[in-house]
Amino acid sequence: FYHTSAQRSTAVNLALTGNFTGPNDLNLVFIKNSYIEIYDITSEGLRVVRDIPLNGTILTALLFRRRNRKQDSLCIVTLRADLIVLECVRTKDSIDFVTVFRKNIDSRGHHLLHHGVTAMVDPTSTYIAIRLFHNLMKLVEINHLPERPGVKVEESKIHAVKLDEGNVIDLTFINGYGYPTFAMICEDQGAAHLRMYELNTKDHILVPLPANFSAIETTSRMLVPVAAPYYGFLVVGDEMISYHSPNKPHITTCIPQKTLSKVVAYAQVDNKRYLMGNLCGELFMVHLVGPEVDALAPLSAVLERLRIERLGITSVPESIVYLDKGVVFIGSYFGDSQLIHLRSDIDPDTKCYFDVYEEYPNLGPIADMIFVENEGQNQLITCSGYSRDGSLRIIRNGIGIQEIATIGQEHMNGVWCIPCNSEVYDDAMICSMKRRSRIVRVIGDDLAGLKLEGFVRDDRTLYCNTVHPQGYKKSPRPLLLQATNDTLWLIGIQDLYGKGCLATWKPPTGMSLSSLTARGDLVIVASGNCIFALRITGTPEKPVFTQVGQNELACEIACIDITPFNKSKSADSSTAAAGDILGDMEPEYAAVGLWLGHGICLLKLPSLEQVFNDPLPKEIRSTGAVILPRSIAIAQFDELLYVFCVSGDGTLFYYNVDYSNDKICLRDRKSMKIGSTCQVRLVQWNSRGKRYVFLCSNRPYIIYENRHKLVFANVNIKDISYMAPLNSGPLNETNTRGWGPIISGSRICMITPKGVTIGSVDCLQKLHVRKIPLFETPRRIVLQEDTCSIGVLTMRQEVVSGEGHIMSLLPSASSDRSGKISQTNCPMPKMGYTKNKFTHLDLYSLLIFCQATWELKHIYRLAYSLECYEVGMSLCSSDLGQNNGSFYVLGTAFVMLDEIEPKKGRIHVLRWDPKVEELQQIGVFEVLGSPNVIRDFDGRLVAGIGSSVRIYNFSDKKLNQESVNNENIVTLFVRTHKDYILVGDIMRSCTLLQFKAEKSSLEVIARHNCPRYVSALEMLDEDHFITADMEGNIQLMGRYQTVSLEEPVVPTIRTVLPIPPKPSSPPPPSLETAASSSAFTVPRSQTPASLFEPDVEQAPLHNSLELTTKCMALTEKCLVDYAFMNTGQSINIFVKGGAVVNVLSLVTGSMLSGAHSVIWCPIPLVISGQHE
């Protein structure tokens, strides 16, 4: 049992800027959960310097500069209260990061802050102040930090300063004072108060300063220090920004925001301008305006007023950093981070005072997700983001193709790239259309028309390649072979450029050409069921087609390939050019695909004698579709030799080639579905010294070998009907993230519906994410396969005006009036009387999308009023034991201001009719409590309502309760397997129930007796389960076996903390194999001493894992923990699914989802974590 991250954290927790890697380097530093990403800020954009993994969850960080230093240091505070100071040593050849200081600053008896952890340095660079605990602040003297690693710092140089205020909202150092001085916002009885303190540097206590501050806004949550010449600080609330300074009048200005929202981030542009962003994504520029005097204002300048400009809407900011020359980075936790450029005038299209240079995708926070397997194309669909950054993300694993240029031309059916004048690189591209052909010159990224004497332009081109006469193997090849409908043409190129057509050939049968291929001086041509082997003889100036072989096969020939292979089982890729396979090796066999079920045969060259035949089925039994081969390829991947054949119905057949004996044969035929179009084609090419097969279809694949296994990698571009390698040589371009030049041979030409596209192929398989913006928060998602629809439960925020009208904050998917909208026709249940009314409403809707096109088909809105509104809690799809299709089942609860927990809820049963695109309300049923979770249970419903688990059946349009279990505090999670139900409680961990259908009863089978705050769970089978808690731990759990009294240690690839075993008895046999096959075990005594290990990716540890689990005496009704593992992120959901990577021997895996990450486990599951 192990886990690995398929996509690590993409959410930006904090962004910093400074001179970290060198005195002259301007760096941008991202903090992403347990990773530090360092970028250089250049004129071309951001360029990656290094990613640093940290064995711990980072809470906050700070760039600071010591006195008499020209380079910044990085201070980090982790969840385990470890303080780390890093410095960079950069030379021309290397970049090294050194831990110069590490100290645990944990304080016993003080509670860790859940939010608002801050680190800051005072204006004189004397202290680093860290607010990590309630009522306590730690001060670290900068001057006493070591100059090099390994030097100890005296304990007395780290000071604990007590804060008398109970609830501190924010605090900051203030400029312009001789001693370190703080300003602080604290809350008492719902009111906000402003305080100022001076730090006594001798006794290290806070001394209150007398200051006459007026009352501040109750919603004030942020302090912004102001630099010279005005000094003082800004107090930021939801509606107003105030300037305060002792002995100076305070100034207040209203924020010109369209919607009332909390300001969450700021950045200083210069001494008189500050950028601020709120939770709605609105960006403001705050100007400090003084008297109109000379530019060199005295230090005692007086601020006259504040001027605030609204610049536009960005992603919801978590951190704002001003870089240089009007460029600003918006780091987002809830949406995609952005790099923007401020402008002096408004953009007429976006109505913003900035341009978005680049967006950095962020998957989090992930609230829910589903795993969809559709004809071999596995994908995850996640509910990502919050508020206006809410979206659905479709995640596939594959190889990316970056589009460089496109020639807009419809009805293209072929493309080939050749070296026409260049001796090394392809400089011409031949394009074939329905009744004509064109040749264009490729000059860098530019294309220009080219006229070639002898080239046939008024007919369709079937095939093109460069060839040479027999005996003339010099490079480049001097002849171009063009095949039209019924003729072969040899045209002079290179030294013979302009000599026109030098030779022609037509089939003696008088029929048209059906298929052909060429290599070197050998051309294999098919016409009907006849096949001919031609050798190009003569000289380059006077070439001649000479027939050297002929055969008549049993059926018409559909496709041919003569790619040679090396019988020594080692493909000599070093001699192969970027677009050529195996250099000039002479082919020995031809692979031929035949029509009407005659299958695939192998012919000996050049005699064309048939040596092997494998018939294929004539048609698909389930659909009756005829199987017709469209393309065939012989491909050798190091020691692996295959024959691939793709048919017109989108089925790929592939064989192992056995040539160990004197006779060659094809063995072990396999097949897979790769598309649903007749425009399929197999093309081989070499790139970066490795062999690839490109499979053109409506869902293209790139096939390659990895560790002696075939890998079928998806491509991020759809509907590719033809492909040709483009050997354009080394390119001067750099990809968008600055990861170096694109290597020669990575370019290809493709025919897509848009025309001919030139693209560059990524060297690695990676996740590709497609974004479906909703502009509101997605909460739940479910797939309904029989109607090919996807239901998404969403939430949007609305404001209630003073007149009682509901106003939309932002346009969103559920507020779109262009689609069909319906609302429950059942009245709201009778609720208790209340005088309190909402000023903000969270309105929930069920959105129905078409699975194929992602078109929004219907909006189903839940009920609301000013006193009470309906909240969507759970969603599932079930057939409810009926035979007329599936239903959407939606669980809701009613929220009132006077109620701490919802007392009433409803279950909506809805049916989607895709033919008429109508959502029918079958029934709405009231329940007592909140249906936190609803799952399909073999035609029944199992629901977690309040503290109970209930089983419902549906008959006569009524929802009938069959059984109930009331032994929980709050039922949050339910998973089912066969007739077993695993229940996750808010505090009582997990309980395993079994439903006895004959008795209509729920029986407790086993219970986990260790209290735990469960955040997610999944059933692997009726005996083994996987759970997660609020600390980011994963537990492998199972039913107690009487043969064992010991809970075994299951080691993992990442850090595992074993539970201390109980004495006697070996581990259960079912887990012994897993333990023995894992990589290694990390005993508690061998936990790494250093937190900073830049070359090793490890899971963060946490204090909670060091606690020994003490359970009650084990019985047969106990669930026991087999192993703990810490992922370093909050886990929201487990989803069962197959492997994301499409490998031949598919490993079923599981994915976890935490709010920003996707983690892979080789057991049937996907995890979504909080930060990826």
From TrEMBL:
Record field: compositional bias (Pro residues): 1058-1070
Domain named RSE1/DDB1/CPSF1 first beta-propeller: residues: 12-344
Localisation per UniProt entry: Nucleus
Keywords noted in UniProt: Nucleus
Annotated spans, Disordered: 1056-1079
Disulfide bond recorded as keyword: no
The protein's name in its UniProt record: DNA damage-binding protein 1
Organism taxonomic ancestry: Eukaryota, Metazoa, Spiralia, Lophotrochozoa, Platyhelminthes
